[in-house]
Design a protein that fits this description.
about 160 residues, mainly beta
Length: about 160
């Protein structure tokens, strides 16, 4: 049975799939008479295809147990989708399973473990598993696309891939 071993989430490792949203290493500068630090352009929303608009939502993810059978993957061909955890508590870690955009190839799947302060912005068309929160209920601010056109493709896998 093939197994996915999560690797630490970093900008370089995740670059083929989108952007990591985190303060570490980000461009920043003071604003508001020096009372606020702006961490600038952490990710770029790509939601305008076919007249789409960018929206913000909150997702509340229930914790899952490992090992976890990977049985479904999805993609959004008309827009990027960003997930930013709303807690910096280290207990609010989550796992990410992705595969490159294009025709789905399970041999290209990769898994990442995200610390509580790291968000991700999946690139347009990147395959990903639905949220996998660990340890506790976790809230995420989600930026994605609303509008005309079909923007969610799902595929069902045979369950032979395990995340552990």
């Amino acid at each position: 049975m093939p197994q996915l071993i999560p690797e630490p989430l970093s900008r370089a490792a995740f670059a083929p799939f989108g952007e990591v949203i985190m303060l570490e290493g980000a461009r920043h500068y003071p604003i508001n008479q020096g009372t606020t630090e702006r961490y600038h352009a952490l990710a770029c929303a790509d939601t305008q295809s076919e007249g789409g608009q960018t929206i913000l939502s909150l997702f509340r993810a229930q914790p899952r147990s490992l090992p976890l059978s990977i049985e479904i993957m999805e993609r959004h061909p008309l827009g990027s989708q960003a997930f930013v955890p709303l807690s910096t508590d280290p207990e609010h870690t989550y796992l990410i399973v992705v595969a490159p955009a294009g025709e789905f190839d399970p041999q290209q799947m990769r898994a990442f473990i995200a610390r509580g302060w790291q968000g991700v912005n999946y690139g347009k068309g990147v395959w990903h598993h639905p949220l996998i929160a660990l340890n506790s209920v976790s809230d995420f601010l989600v930026m994605d696309r609303i509008g005309q056109g079909s923007n969610c493709d799902e595929i069902t896998l045979d369950g032979s891939w395990m995340l552990g």
